[in-house]
């Protein structure tokens, strides 16, 4: 964790705390779950699978900068998949879901996914469209309606 204070003439100082996978500006906080880099997988404690194989997420809870992510498997186990050296998170329909939660009376305000297939979810609250969820909730569950292939998930909360 590092703290950076930005100052310039005529403006109020802004202080940011930076941690691996996220940052805080004192108002909104951000957590980034990164599945397409070795460093991102290491930050989550996920072993990079061999080419053509997957590492199942199982029933583990992964936490970055105060945001917890728990996956539920669908017709096929939710996993990090290695396709010729490129990794992504794969989640499958028929029960596959991702649940994000924050504590300490915080509220998630947005979840933004990047990757090959990110718009294949329904949300238990708020609005979800084209890979982006918006709303205000301490916990959000996104359920797969088809196979999702996700590189990164950025969760903003306050």
List keywords for this structure.
mainly beta; eight-stranded antiparallel beta sheet; globular; 1 helix; 158 residues
Written overview of the protein:
This protein is mainly β. Helices cover 4% and strands 53% of the residues. The protein has one helix and 17 strands. The longest helix has 7 residues, at 38-44. The chain is globular and about 55 Å long. 28% of the residues are buried. The mean pLDDT is 90.
Instruction: Describe the sheet with the most strands.
Output: 8 strands, antiparallel
Q: Tell how many strands the DSSP assignment holds.
A: 17
What is the percentage of strand-forming residues?
A: over 45%
Spans of 5+ residues with little confidence (pLDDT < 50)? none
| Residue-averaged pLDDT | 90
What is the 3D shape? globular
Which structural category fits the helices and strands?
Answer: mainly beta
Query: What's the helix count?
Result: 1
Residue share in helices?
Answer: under 10%
- H/E series, N to C? EEEEHEEEEEEEEEEEEE
Head-to-tail CA distance between termini: 19 Å
Radius of gyration: 16 Å
Strand order in the sheet with the most strands: 1-2-3-4-17-11-14-13
Lay out the secondary structure:
Elements (H helix, E strand, L loop, with lengths): L1 E5 L7 E6 L2 E3 L4 E6 L3 H7 L9 E3 L4 E4 L2 E6 L6 E5 L2 E6 L5 E6 L5 E7 L6 E3 L3 E3 L2 E6 L1 E6 L3 E3 L1 E6 L1
Antiparallel strand pairs: 1-2, 2-3, 3-4, 4-17, 5-8, 6-7, 7-10, 8-9, 9-16, 10-15, 11-14, 11-17, 12-15, 13-14
């Amino acid at each position: 964790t590092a703290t950076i204070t930005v100052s310039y003439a005529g403006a109020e100082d802004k202080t940011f705390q930076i941690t691996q996978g996220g940052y805080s500006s004192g108002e909104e906080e951000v957590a980034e779950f990164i599945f397409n880099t070795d460093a991102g997988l290491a930050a989550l404690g996920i072993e990079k699978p061999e080419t053509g194989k997957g590492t199942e997420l199982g029933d583990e809870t992964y936490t970055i900068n105060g945001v917890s992510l728990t996956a539920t498997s669908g017709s096929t186990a939710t996993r990090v998949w290695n396709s010729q050296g490129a990794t992504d998170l794969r989640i499958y329909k028929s029960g596959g879901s991702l649940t994000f939660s924050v504590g300490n009376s915080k509220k998630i305000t947005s979840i933004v996914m990047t990757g090959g297939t990110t718009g294949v979810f329904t949300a238990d609250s708020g609005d979800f469209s084209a890979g982006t969820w918006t709303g205000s909730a301490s916990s959000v569950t996104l359920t797969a309606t088809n196979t999702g292939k996700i590189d990164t998930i950025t969760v903003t909360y306050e």
